[in-house]
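Researcher: I'd like a structural prediction for the single chain below. Treat it as a standalone chain; there are no partners to consider.
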Amino acid sequence: MNKVRLGIIGMGGMGNVHFNNASKMERVEVTAICDIEPQKMEKFPPNILRFDNSASLIASGKVDAIVISTPHYFHPDIAIDGLRHKLHVLTEKPIAVHINDAKRMLSAHTDRTRVFAVMFQQRTNPAFKKLKEMITEGITGDLLRVNWIVTDWFRTEAYYASGGWRATWKGEGGGVLLNQCPHNLDLLQWLVGMPQKVISTIGIGRYHNIEVEDDVTAILEYPDGVTGVFTTTTGISPGTNRLELSFENGRIILENQKLIFSKNEMPVSEYRKTSNDMWGVPPYSNIEYDFTGQYGGQHAEVLQNFIDAILDGKELIAPAEEGIHSLMLGNAMFLSGFLKEPVSLPIDGDLYEETLQSLIKNSKFVKSPVKTDVVGDITKSFGVKR
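Model: Treating it as a single chain, here is the predicted structure.
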């Protein structure tokens, strides 16, 4: 095979993005698209096969790989069906709504010659790549503290009213933790690993007429006494996106695509133990990296990486096996806030799924009618910050 025949399932905002990206690539051809709303497929070239259900596309024999860009609940069954039909699979984030479904997906990946990836395009951001490199190479030393304020995910009521599934337990399965923050949660665990305990508070519809969380503050407990705070919301503006990590060898601040490493002249623990100056502070110097205007290849780079992995065996930017970590973290934050108690990781997947099903069953929320006059450019959501 020297060209991948690609099927795109879900032709809403992200489906269009993936189609446009694939159309500019040399070793991939979009041969089929799928959506349960036929009108969403009308504008695409007539030579492309159209399907109104994913199973028919997957079984058609006309594709070698699929990209899944449907609402979240559909990701697991479509991915599993694709893998069982020996297709390569790239799914949008989050990999699933809850970790039990994510585990089902990963269990279905029995043929390791099939590529299975997740769309965590923020891993291509050069600022985060640099930070990952510094940590991996040991330049920073051991982690001491984590703080991430992610309050720049602002959303209007029009956004939530743009689809009947949005911001409902039955249709989406969660709010800011499941829709906006999977990228941040993925980057957090990618950089510094998973905490062992989470204590959080959540606001259900604090700022919007929705039944899911739109405000979260979580305390993270890592091994060896390391602690952190993660704060996010879709309800305030101007927002902040500031990641601050403290290490033995200094502090790193990443904000507005600028990375500042305040590097200690000696490790902080060594200075603390050896200095005779009762008011002393370790001397440090700043090393600055400016990535302003550089946001990586984003979705196109992950899609190209997926194609290269299929054709050349290239290492994946974001293997599906890593997609469960951010989901685990988000599920833990919600569960802790909902139960109003600390939650240890890995969480009890059955308890989370039971909690979610209870929220769906007992929901009395009446969603406002879907607005058909909303406007917006989805690419505004990716370019900058996260």
